[in-house]
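Q: C-alpha cells for this one, please.
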Amino acid sequence: MALQPEQVEALPADVEPIVSSDSAPSSPELASTPSEGSVPTPGSPIVPISVADSFAFAFDIDGVLVRGGKPIPEAIEAMKVLNGGNEYGIQIPHIFLTNGGGKFEEERCQDLSKQLERPIQPGQFICGHTPMREMASRYETVLIVGGEGEKCKQVAEGYGFKTVLTPGDIIRHDAATTPFRQLEVITSSSPTRDLTGVTVDAVFVFADSRDWGSDIQIMLDLAMSVGGRLGTRSETFTEGPPFYFSHNDVVWSAAHEHVRIGMGALRRMFEVTFEDITHGTGKLRTHAFGKPQVSTFEFASRLMSQWRYDQHGLTEAPKTVYFIGDTPESDICGANAVDAKADNEWFSILVKTGVYQDGTEPAYKPRATVNDVLEAVNLGIQREMRKKVASGLKEKVLDGEAELAGGMLPA
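A: Here is the predicted structure, written as C-alpha cells:
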C-alpha cells in the first residue's frame, strides 16, 4: 500500500517551519584533523581523529539497521566502518532518523547502542515525535495517543506539554466511552480525574496504538465535538481540535516475514470513518510529522549541524548527506524532496532488507539501490573518494594550464 505524492504535506499554518541553518560550502578535503587537512591513503595507519568534513550519513532504523528488535548483521559492520574502521582511517559523522517512537530519545538510544554495539547519543537521534516538542507551548491541554502504558504521556510531559491526557484517563472518567475495552487492563500512575467540561486543544499520536478500536473511538468523539470539549457534539462536525501524527507510514518492517500495518493505516481508518459518520459534511484537521515530510528532514539537518559541531568542531554543513532507508514512500520520497530544496545534496539509497521488495518498482526512485546498509555505507565512501580524485585531477590540470600560460607571457 503506497502513499501517494499528494500526501507529502507541509506543516499546518499555525506551526512555525523548521529552517536549516545557513552555512557556506564545506572544505573540498575528504577529511580534516586539528593538525592537518589531508586524508590518509589506503593502507596508512588509522588516525582516529581524522573526520570526514564534506559528507555525512543519516539512517532509518527499522528494516535498515534493525528488524524485529534484532540487529541486521551488516549494520554492526557498517557502524565500525563509520567509526574509523575503514581503509582511510576516517570517522564519518552520522545521525539516525526514524519514524518510530513511544519512548524518550535517551531510552531509544540505549536500545540502539546495545543492538549496534556502539554508543549512540540523543544528540544524533530523531524519532517520529521528536519535532513535536517544539509545539509544547502552543496548547494547554492535549490528548496523547499510542505507545505502551503511560510512556508517551511521560515523554510529552518531558517535552514541556502542560496538561496531558491519555485515552485511559477518558475511559476511567466514563467507562461507557469504549464498551468493548476491559477497564482492568488500564493502569495509570495518575488518579482518576473528573474531566467534566474539559477541553482538549489538540491530539498528538506519538506512537502506534495498542488498542485501535478504543483510540479511534475517542479520537472520533473529539473530532465531532464542539471545540474539543469532552462529551459534546458539534452540529457541523467542523469544530474539532487538530490531530497530529508522528508519522504517516502505512506499513513497516517488523519481525514477521511480511510488513505490518502502522500509524498511517490508523490515520486512514480514522479519516475514512469520520467521513462515513458525518456523511461527508465534516472537516478534519490532520497533519503528519516524520518522514517523508520535508520539515522533518530540515529538522534533521539542523540536528546534524549541531552534532558535527559538538563532536568534531565542524562549522560548515556537509556537501552531501547519504540517506539510507528501506521504504520508498517515506525514506526515499523524503530524501529526494529535501534534495530538491536544500543547498546541499541529499543522496538517497534504498536497501533490500526491509519494506522494499527486490524486483518491484519503487514508487519513488532512489539514487542507488543496494543489498544492505554496509553496501550503502561503502558506496557513499567510495563515491566521495572518486569525487576527491576528480577534484584533484582538475586542480592539477588548471595549475598546468596556468603555468603554461605564464610561460608564454612576455618577460
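A few notes: The longest strand covers residues 345-351. The first helix runs from residue 73 to 82.
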